[in-house]
């Protein structure tokens, strides 16, 4: 038998390796493209959560990559834009057709808004099922700003044409009116509807129509404008108008003549036109003079070149006195330097300053407060020539603010007095209660002595008296003493509650970094017997650190969790959830239970002292949540309650994430 030899079998994987390398390079190539394009690229799941995006999108949104990952579009849009984007995405999902023009606004992390234009298409898995959306996002904020600038520019030039004192008209080569400004139909008395489409022969005499034809013909043949040509026109009412006009040829983009444009001045009634111009100027001057704020213009040296009446009223000077006046004449040295520094900043940056608080000294020596906004004035070449601004007298507002501060201080003192009063009264009320307890005890002892000697007195009483005395000794008096004892105990409980509330308002808070996970865990452990006995499940989410007084936080959590346990519904397994979310400078905590819930008509009682909502089948004075509210307010926090009868209750409160001291200690 021949000796067997080992057999080695090789598989050629060259093509597979080449394919993998090709796929790797292709993936690397496309990833490089996505990371280097200026537009943002993104992928969302079907719920609108970001699952992939490039650096350009990170830059536009202003969040870090980690912050953006899995962020939902609801988190960086207002409700109006959420609706707009939701409708567009639903359309893409429903039709399967991409949408290349979704425009909306986002709110960046720093609070600024950006206008975006998204092209979105549906992503599908290998089986063709929709799994999300992908798209390109372009920041069109600057484009929108440019479009708005162009719109305003067009509107501005149209406004200029409408307010110039001369008539501006455009006619086609047949001599029919195609465009007019407001001055044109005011000039001849026609309405805009009547004027547009009208031929020039309709508003002039045959003689002047011939003259106009010759003018237009010469302009058409030579291409040269006709300047300051005088001719006669006829107004709608038949009156003659002597016009001074400059006309030039209009051409299309190819240079072909398409009509004529004319600026016409009525020199027959020059005075009327001067008056019209004066009225036009007066209209704007009237606006400036009648606004409730002061308007001023300064030269670069800081001297007034124009002021309205309100500025004069603010400072108490006449207009003649103020023209040429420097701010140093109505400001002390500190405010003059402050103003000069502000004007210097406007000059150097070109950026306006808004709501600058200033003190001014009126001519009569009284001091007023102004809020000033200043911007730079430039000439046609863009060279700075001075400053213009609005000055608002805020003296009364300042007085009101100071008054509010005084009221706040007085309220604080009043609150402190109320706390002291509550403390003192509660303390003093205990003295008579102690006496009542003592005398009640003595009465019980005396009653015992009387009762022990009652049998000896029986022979001396008739049946009716014997029965009455027995009733008094054995029933009426003991019952009255029991009532007194219970009332004293209840009053003592109320006084203790008032004392606790007063102490909470007076005790010193010692903020420190607190691990809320550990604090809640400890609180739950102290309640473990009740929780196990009643089969209650407590779920605690990831809770952030906060800066607060530890004892206060223990009381807050203890009271709310204790309430949740007390008022659970015995007909179903109890469940309590504790969650929190940090929102910048504060953290919002939510404690949700599936207990009895609170009726809408009882909600006003929830945080009121000595008030209790719902069925009164558990012991307590109704002070726990009043304590909680006081403690949270002292921390600058808030607490609210949401509840539905028969379904459960959620308490929501806020607390500072960290204080300056907490930040140093952490």
Topology:
Layout: H1 14-36, E1 40-45, E2 50-53, H2 55-61, H3 65-68, H4 79-95, E3 99-107, E4 113-124, E5 130-139, H5 141-163, E6 167-172, E7 177-180, H6 182-188, H7 192-195, H8 206-222, E8 226-234, E9 240-251, E10 257-266, H9 270-290, E11 294-299, E12 304-307, H10 309-315, H11 319-322, H12 333-349, E13 353-361, E14 367-378, E15 384-393, H13 395-452, H14 454-457, H15 463-506, E16 511-515, H16 516-526, H17 528-534, E17 537-540, E18 545-549, H18 550-566, E19 575-583, E20 586-593, H19 624-634, E21 639-644, E22 648-656, H20 660-665
Parallel strand pairs: 17-19
Antiparallel strand pairs: 1-2, 1-5, 3-4, 4-5, 6-7, 6-10, 8-9, 9-10, 11-12, 11-15, 13-14, 14-15, 16-18, 19-20, 20-22, 21-22
Helix pairs in contact: 13-15, 15-19, 16-18, 18-19
Q: How would you portray this structure in words?
A:
- There is one protein chain.
- This protein is elongated.
- It has 20 helices and 22 strands.
- By secondary structure, the chain is of the alpha+beta class.
- It is 46% helix and 25% strand.
- The chain has a five-stranded antiparallel sheet with strand order 2-1-5-4-3, sandwiched between helices. Strands 7-6-10-9-8 form a five-stranded antiparallel sheet. It has a five-stranded antiparallel sheet with strand order 12-11-15-14-13, sandwiched between helices.
- It folds into five domains: 28-142, PAS domain (Beta-Lactamase); 164-276, PAS domain (Beta-Lactamase, 2-Layer Sandwich), CATH 3.30.450.20; 291-393, 2-Layer Sandwich (Beta-Lactamase); 401-506; 511-665, 2-Layer Sandwich (Heat Shock Protein 90).
């Amino acid at each position: 038998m021949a000796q067997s030899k080992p057999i080695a079998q090789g598989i050629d994987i060259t093509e597979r390796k080449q394919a993998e390398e090709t796929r790797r390079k292709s993936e690397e190539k496309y990833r490089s493209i996505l990371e280097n394009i200026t537009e943002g690229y993104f992928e969302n799941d079907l719920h609108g959560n970001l699952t992939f995006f490039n650096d350009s999108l990170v830059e536009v949104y202003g969040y870090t990559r980690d912050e953006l990952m899995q962020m939902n579009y609801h988190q960086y849009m207002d409700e109006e834009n959420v609706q707009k984007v939701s409708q567009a995405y639903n359309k893409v999902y429903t039709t399967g057709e991409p949408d290349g023009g979704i425009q909306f606004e986002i709110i960046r992390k720093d609070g600024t808004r950006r206008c975006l234009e998204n092209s979105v298409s549906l992503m599908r898995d290998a089986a063709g099922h929709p799994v999300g959306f992908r798209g390109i996002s372009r920041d069109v904020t600057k484009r929108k700003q440019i479009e708005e600038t162009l719109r305003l520019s067009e509107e501005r030039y149209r406004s200029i044409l409408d307010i110039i004192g001369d008539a501006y008209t455009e006619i086609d080569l047949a001599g029919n009116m195609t465009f007019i400004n407001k001055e044109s139909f005011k000039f001849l008395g026609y309405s805009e509807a009547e004027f547009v489409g009208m031929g020039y022969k309709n508003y002039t005499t045959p003689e002047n129509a011939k003259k106009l034809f010759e003018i237009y013909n010469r302009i058409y043949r030579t291409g040269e404008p006709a300047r300051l040509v005088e001719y006669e026109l006829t107004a709608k009412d038949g009156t003659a108008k002597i016009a001074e006009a400059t006309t030039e040829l209009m051409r299309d983009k190819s240079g072909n003549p398409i009509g004529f444009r004319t600026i016409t001045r009525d020199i027959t009634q020059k005075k009327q036109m001067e008056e019209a111009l004066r009225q036009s100027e007066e209209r704007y001057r009237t606006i400036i003079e009648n606004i409730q704020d002061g308007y001023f213009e300064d030269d670069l040296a800081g001297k007034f070149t124009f002021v309205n009446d309100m500025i004069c009223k603010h400072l108490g000077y006449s207009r003649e006195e103020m023209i040429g006046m420097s701010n140093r004449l109505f400001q002390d040295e500190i405010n003059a330097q402050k103003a000069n520094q502000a004007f210097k900043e406007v000059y150097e940056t070109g950026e306006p300053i808004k709501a600058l608080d200033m003190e001014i000294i009126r001519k009569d020596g009284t001091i007023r407060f102004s809020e000033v906004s200043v911007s730079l004035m430039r000439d046609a070449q863009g060279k700075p020539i001075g400053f213009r601004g609005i000055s608002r007298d805020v003296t009364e507002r300042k007085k009101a603010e100071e008054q509010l501060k005084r009221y706040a201080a007085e309220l604080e003192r009043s609150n402190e007095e109320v706390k002291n009063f509550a403390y003192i009264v509660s303390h003093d009320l205990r003295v008579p209660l102690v006496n009542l307890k003592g005398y009640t005890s003595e009465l019980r002892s005396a009653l015992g002595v009387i009762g022990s000697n009652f049998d000896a007195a029986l022979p001396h009483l008739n049946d009716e008296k014997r029965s009455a005395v027995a009733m008094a000794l054995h029933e009426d008096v003991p019952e009255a003493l029991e009532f007194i004892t219970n009332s004293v105990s209840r009053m003592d409980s109320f006084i203790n509650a008032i004392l606790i509330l007063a102490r909470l308002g007076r005790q010193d808070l010692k903020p420190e970094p607190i691990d809320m996970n550990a604090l809640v865990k400890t609180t739950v452990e102290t309640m473990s017997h009740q929780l196990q006995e009643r089969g209650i499940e407590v779920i605690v989410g990831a809770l952030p650190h906060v800066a607060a007084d530890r004892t206060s936080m223990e009381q807050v959590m203890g009271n709310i969790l204790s309430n949740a346990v007390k008022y659970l519904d015995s007909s179903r397994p109890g469940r309590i959830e504790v969650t929190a979310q940090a929102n910048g400078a504060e953290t919002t905590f939510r404690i949700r239970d599936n207990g009895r819930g609170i009726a809408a008509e009882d909600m006003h009682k929830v945080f009121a002292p000595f008030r209790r909502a719902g069925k009164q089948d558990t012991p307590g004075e109704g002070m726990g949540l009043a304590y909680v509210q006081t403690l949270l307010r002292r921390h600058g926090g808030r607490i609210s309650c949401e509840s539905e009868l028969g379904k459960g209750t959620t308490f929501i409160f806020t607390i500072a994430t960290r204080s300056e001291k907490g930040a140093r200690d952490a």
